[in-house]
């Protein structure tokens, strides 16, 4: 049971927290706003995937640790018993938790790094101050598509396949 007798509350809370922390850490680490915090910034910049791995290990046993609507859609396509397609309340709750967690993570990143952190997207730049051309934006879109596919592919094959049910290293593979 979840908090207050609601079986969904703990799952939604975990999705919110995991998505929030993932967005916050990646956004702050990707910006130039944390240069004053050199030891933290260097380590986080080198190991952004560690936050995803940590959140998967910390919260995965409760919510499944989707933390990304694309992963949720991939799991819906697979239609596993733990996350069935017909449970529309659960699906809607996961999407809302992820979207609200992402927005909250962005606000937290903004409060940590200010405008340098908040205004890094949707700017696609090769050099500072030089906007990207249409072809470069297409390359960014392609890379996002490929890496989102890879993330969903790894999650489906490592965390939802019954043949890997005794696998305790899924967090490392996903992160």
From TrEMBL:
Q: Which domain of life is it from?
A: Eukaryota
Give GO terms: molecular function aspect only.
Answer: channel activity
The record, for InterPro entries, names: Aquaporin-like, Aquaporin_transptr, MIP, MIP_CS
Q: What is its main location?
A: membrane
List the transmembrane segments: 12-30, 50-77, 89-112, 137-159
Q: Does the keyword Transmembrane apply?
A: yes
Which Pfam families does UniProt cross-reference here? MIP (PF00230)
- Cellular localization per UniProt: Membrane
Q: How does it sit in the membrane?
A: Multi-pass membrane protein
Give the residues annotated as coiled coil. none
Which Gene3D superfamilies does this chain map to?
Glycerol uptake facilitator protein (1.20.1080.10)
Presence of keyword Translocase: no
Record key words, sorted: Membrane, Transmembrane, Transmembrane helix, Transport
Any one GO CC term of this protein is: membrane
Which PANTHER family does this one have?
AQUAPORIN NIP1-1-RELATED (PTHR45724:SF13), AQUAPORIN NIP2-1 (PTHR45724)
Question: To which protein family does this belong?
Answer: Belongs to the MIP/aquaporin (TC 1.A.8) family.
Q: What is the name of the protein in this document?
A: Major intrinsic protein
What organism, scientifically named, is this protein from? Reticulomyxa filosa
């Amino acid at each position: 049971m979840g908090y207050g007798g609601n079986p969904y509350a703990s799952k939604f809370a975990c999705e919110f927290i995991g998505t929030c922390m993932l967005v916050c850490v990646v956004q702050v680490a990707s910006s130039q706003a944390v240069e004053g915090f050199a030891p933290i910034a260097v380590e986080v910049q080198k190991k952004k995937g560690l936050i995803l791995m940590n959140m998967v290990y910390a919260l995965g046993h409760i919510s499944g640790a989707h933390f990304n609507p694309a992963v949720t859609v991939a799991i819906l396509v697979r239609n596993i018993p733990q996350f069935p397609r017909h449970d529309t309340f659960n699906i809607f709750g996961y999407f809302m938790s992820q979207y609200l967690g992402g927005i909250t993570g962005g606000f937290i990143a903004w409060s940590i790094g200010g405008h340098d952190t908040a205004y890094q997207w949707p700017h696609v730049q090769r050099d500072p101050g030089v906007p990207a051309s249409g072809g470069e934006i297409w390359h960014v879109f392609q890379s996002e598509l490929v890496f989102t596919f890879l993330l969903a592919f790894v999650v489906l094959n490592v965390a939802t396949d019954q043949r890997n049910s005794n696998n305790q290293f899924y967090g490392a593979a996903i992160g």
